[in-house]
TrEMBL record:
Signal peptide start and end residues: none
Protein name: GFA family protein
Keyword annotations of the record: Lyase, Metal-binding, Zinc
Family to which this protein belongs: Belongs to the Gfa family.
PANTHER family (UniProt xref): CENP-V_GFA DOMAIN-CONTAINING PROTEIN-RELATED, GFA DOMAIN-CONTAINING PROTEIN
Amino acid sequence: MSEEHTGGCLCGAVRFSIRGKPGPVVGCHCSQCRRQTGFYYAAVNVPRTALSVEDEKAVRWYRSSEEARRGFCSNCGSALFWQGDGRSEVSVMAGTFDEPSGLAFSHHIYCADKGDFYEITDGLPQYDRYPV
């Protein structure tokens, strides 16, 4: 039997499931992620084909740059997804998973752009940009 993880938004209008094990949690400290969430973005990458959303009508997509779009609940505003153009993976916000999630942090990206009001002190690898 295949592993499955579930989650959803704050109000419950959007529920999703993921077949298989999600990737590790990555913290993104870029200014766009901070503005969307109020802190940094903690997300896991999963194959787009492994993600099923129960009510796609409740998901709204915002084109946040020339390279990507961000998905959120149209009812409560919960940040849910990040999708890079042409990528076969979608990033899913780690905090939207039902517990126990079994997720664990791996590293931080865009640390050169992090907010001036906090420090990254968990000892995990930090990259100024997205690692190649």
